[in-house]
Amino acid sequence: MSNDIAKGFPKGFLWGGATAANQCEGGYLEGNKGLSTVDVVPAGKDRFPVLKGEMKMLECDSEHFYPSHEAIDFYHHYKEDIALLGEMGFKTFRLSLSWARIFPNGDDTEPNEEGLKFYDDIFDECLKYGIEPLVTITHFDVPMHLVKTIGSWRSRKMVDYYERLCEVIFNRYKDKVKYWLTFNEINMLLHLPFIGAGLVFEDGENQEAVKYQAAHHQLVASAKATKIAHRINPEFKIGCMLAAANTYPFTCAPEDVWKSMEKDRENYFFIDVQSRGEYPNYAKKMFERLNIKLAMEDEDEELLKNNTVDFISFSYYASRLTSADPNVKAETSGNAFKTLRNPHLKASEWGWQIDPLGLRITMNSLYDRYQKPLFIVENGLGAVDIPDENGYVEDDYRIEYLRKHIKAMKDAISIDGVELWGYTTWGCIDLVSAGTGEMKKRYGFIYVDKDNEGNGTLKRSRKKSFYWYKKVIETNGEVL
Predict the structure, then answer these.
(1) Is 383 within 8 Å of 447 (Cβ atoms)?
(2) How confident is the model at residue 329 (pLDDT cuts 50, 70, 90)?
(3) How far apart (Å, rounded) are the C-alpha atoms in residues 470 and 35?
(4) Which of 54, 379, 454, 467 is spaced 20 to 30 Å from 285 by Cα?
(5) Distance CA 284, CA 279 (A)
(6) Nearest Cα to 30, choosing from 63, 65, 71?
(7) Any idea what the CATH number is for the domain that residue 374 is in?
(8) Which conformational region is residue 85 in: left (phi greater than 0), alpha (psi within -120 to 50 degrees), or beta?
(9) Which listed residue (378, 419, 438, 478) is catalytic?
């Protein structure tokens, strides 16, 4: 056994931060970009019905405010923003591509050169500061044209369009990007189907059947992406991405323990296929019970089996809690994942329960299950930041949250022997919240002057956590 297991963070550990095109880019129709799913998702009371695919909104209207249209205008500020990440000493920067920026309609025969060049410029800027890009191919992002014409991921044709996208980007950026993720939080498709897969439901439709058929198409697309990537550049590392967190049983009653296991399997299902290469038996039995018959093509099973991912990436914000007892009803608020309130944990302003040990538990669960390297690609605390007149925020609460989670990661590596490649905190620069559409729910080390209504100068300023995280990276996690 090598001696370096017990020494904390390994040499070359990839410290950094994460964003998504749809939450930070803005420039929503600039550079010949097409309309994307998130561009039609409003802020306010209609947001969740649209995210869930229950309220049909296929165009923008004048009644709503759409935060993605400008977001934090990374489209025009990327040089300044990446320079700040470079100043912090980032080793990696996780960002996503906007599919509609590269193929405006999704089914175009030729890609949009302006969109491709935009990402070339971003990657060049990253590499200038020694920052390794970590690229999510689709992060809650489908060209609206494909939603309107073929129903998005409910259609098998999506696999072909996604394949075309992958061929183009892998060839174009093969010397600039090494780490790729196929789908962001792929399990979110079950919870917020419109944002996860561009699904809009019709009255009386079997929603579960539609969701799992769309999931099959995404899983096949992910396997095809992995196959193409390894052909184009064998050095590429391709990962899947799970919205992760163990579900605890509310009590030690066996019924509660069983319920928590079922809840975990609901999410593991996707990664079981992407990492092990086949549908698990528990999923096949579930399909039988729900009378779901997946439409598969002859080569699908072989494709899934032969093209598993190289690493498992995941987001972790809070653990979850469940009970088999219908009378236990104390739920937390503000999360796509409904969960019971854990009396042993404190919660953030948005009801997310703060559980650093839960991160270590989740890391061990994933590593025990898959025996593949892990990469934490989202983690952080959404909070209301009050800046002074210079835009400086004394965000000790954020530092405290991150410190405890990094300590839990360190324990998982050095005590438990978990293999972890890197850590990218979520929203390293303030951005629009995917769930609520707010700006005031901030995660960043960098403050952006903008409010929920879209007002502000967009001026960037360093928070206290900026300097703290810089020291963490400098010392490879030794000074927390």
Answers:
(1) no
(2) confident
(3) 37
(4) 54
(5) 7
(6) 71
(7) 3.20.20.80
(8) alpha
(9) 378
And the tokens for 470?
């810089």
The whole model's pTM is what? 0.97
For residue 135, the cross-strand partners are: 95, 180
Other CB atoms within 10 Å distance of the CB of residue 113: 12
pLDDT digit string, tens, across residues 407-420: 999 999 999 999 99
Q: Quick check: 114 and 108 in contact, CB under 8 A?
A: no
Domain housing 85: 3-474
Is residue 75 included in any domain, yes or no? yes
Res. 4: pLDDT tops 80: no
What are the pLDDT digits (tens) for 444-455? 999 999 999 999
Q: How many Cβ atoms sit within 10 Å of the Cβ of residue 404? A: 16
Find out whether 112 and 101 touch, Cβ atoms under 8 Å: yes
Could you tell me how many residues make up the chain?
480
> Which of 308-312, 334-338, 342-346 has maximum average pLDDT?
308-312
The DSSP call for residue 39 is G
Give a yes or no: residue 174 inside a domain.
Answer: yes
- For 199, the 3-state DSSP assignment is coil
Per-residue pLDDT for 3 more than 70? no
132 is catalytic: no
Q: What is the SS3 assignment for 230-250?
A: HHHCCCCEEEEEEECCCEEEC
| Cβ proximity of 243 and 337 under 8 Å | yes
The answer to whether residue 480 sits within a structural domain is: no
Instruction: Tell me the DSSP string of 181-196.
Output: EEETTGGGGGTSHHHH
Convert the pLDDT of each residue in 168-218 to its tens digit.
Answer: 999 999 999 999 999 999 999 999 999 999 999 988 999 999 999 999 999
Determine, yes or no, domain membership for 479: no
Amino acid at 480: L
Counted domains in the chain = 1
Per-residue model confidence (pLDDT) at position 2: 45
